[in-house]
Recover the amino acids of this structure.
């Protein structure tokens, strides 16, 4: 006896064929393949999703009486790239999810919308697919072990180290020590971006960072990131051997930095900030901070692409502490699984930040426990890169968290 080989299509009886077809075409973007009217008077419509071979058959039998929907029957299930994106599409049609979205720790999600005639449509965001990150000669593929980015300050006014490492030889020695402790990236900066910090000239920033970059470039095998808002500083740093631009001013309108990133193939950290370091904490206001940060990422991704930056070069950073109140920061931390599911590797920078003092009362040097709490939360949420001062301790924490989660998922 031969067995069936494949499912040809799924049939659903409906009372109002035209209304139901219109809903699926306008709301879900399904394609109507064909219509058919049988000799017995039944009307059939065949639809399919753009990337699926399976056909859905909607049928209406005039005179047969109303169709009784089974209360627990899910009508259809569809895969979407992003439930957040789809929510915005629904809003343009005056619709919302009837349930969800709900996300798991791996970046997968599920939501439901009400369809005509009492059915539900199930929308599934699959577990975060593999993400490629290219930063010049460096290549990464996620999911994978979290990358710990070590902070290397060449500034006299950083909020966290008070200029401890301003001497070039001391800065370089500190950076080499971070690599020994497990730093997968070094982030070198010569201009403080703490709230209210005074801007420095291009010449002064170059004077601070270039000797450090030039000495590190030939001595470390990990990528070096330049933390700068100035295109010409970034250009000099990339010429000296840096591979990533960490751009606090990604909210700018000028395109020079983005065209430089496109030209050099550098990795690019797109950080969300409201205002500037001088104004960002004066009165940060959002209607929905998670949605506004998400919208910013997608708008910037398009502008970056328009300037020639490939998607694989881009890293998202929600900018904890950059134009956010304590509540805004906590909302974003609670939404890390959503932000990590937006299609690009997510970087989190919370190390020693002042919002921790509000919660714990600790000074900058005493905020390591709070930072480790955020780091382990970030591992479970799917964050790919964490920017920290205390590299050795953070590496230990995230590796243990990763091992526990791996065992939990395989249980």
């Amino acid at each position: 006896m031969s067995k069936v080989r494949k499912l040809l299509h799924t049939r659903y009886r409906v009372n109002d064929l035209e209304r139901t077809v219109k809903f699926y075409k306008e709301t879900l973007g399904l394609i109507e393949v064909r219509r058919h009217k049988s000799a017995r008077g039944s009307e059939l419509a065949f639809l399919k999703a753009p990337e699926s071979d399976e056909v859905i058959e909607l049928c209406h039998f005039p005179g047969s009486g109303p169709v009784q929907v089974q209360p627990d029957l899910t009508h259809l299930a569809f895969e979407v790239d992003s439930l957040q994106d789809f929510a915005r599409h629904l809003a343009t049609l005056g619709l919302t999810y009837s349930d969800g979205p709900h996300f798991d720790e791996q970046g997968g999600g599920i939501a439901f919308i009400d369809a005509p005639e009492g059915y539900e449509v199930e929308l599934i965001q699959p577990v975060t697919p593999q993400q490629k990150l290219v930063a010049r000669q460096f290549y990464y593929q996620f999911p994978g072990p979290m990358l710990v980015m070590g902070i290397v300050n060449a500034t006299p006014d950083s909020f966290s180290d008070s200029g401890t490492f301003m001497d070039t030889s001391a800065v370089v020695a500190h950076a080499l020590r971070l690599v020994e402790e497990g730093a997968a990236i070094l982030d070198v900066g010569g201009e403080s971006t703490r709230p209210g910090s005074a801007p420095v000239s291009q010449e002064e920033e170059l004077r601070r960072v270039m000797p450090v970059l030039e000495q590190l470039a030939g001595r470390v095998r990990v990528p070096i990131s330049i933390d700068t808002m100035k295109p010409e500083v970034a250009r000099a740093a990339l010429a000296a051997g840096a591979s990533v631009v960490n751009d606090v001013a990604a909210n700018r309108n000028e395109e020079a930095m983005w065209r430089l990133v496109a030209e050099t193939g550098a990795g690019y950290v797109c950080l969300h900030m409201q205002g500037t370091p001088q104004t960002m904490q004066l009165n940060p206001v959002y209607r929905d901070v998670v949605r506004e940060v998400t919208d910013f990422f997608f708008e910037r991704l398009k502008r970056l692409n328009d300037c020639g930056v490939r998607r694989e070069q881009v890293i998202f950073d929600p900018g904890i502490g950059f134009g956010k109140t304590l509540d805004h920061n906590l909302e974003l931390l609670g939404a890390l699984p959503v932000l990590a599911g937006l299609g690009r590797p997510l970087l989190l920078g919370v190390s020693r930040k002042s919002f921790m003092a509000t919660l714990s009362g600790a000074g900058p040097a005493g905020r390591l426990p709070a930072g480790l709490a955020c780091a382990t939360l970030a591992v479970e949420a799917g964050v790919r890169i964490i920017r920290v001062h205390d590299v050795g301790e953070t590496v230990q924490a995230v590796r243990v968290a990763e091992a526990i989660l791996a065992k939990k998922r395989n249980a």
Summary: Confidence is low (pLDDT under 50) at residues 1-5, 69-74.
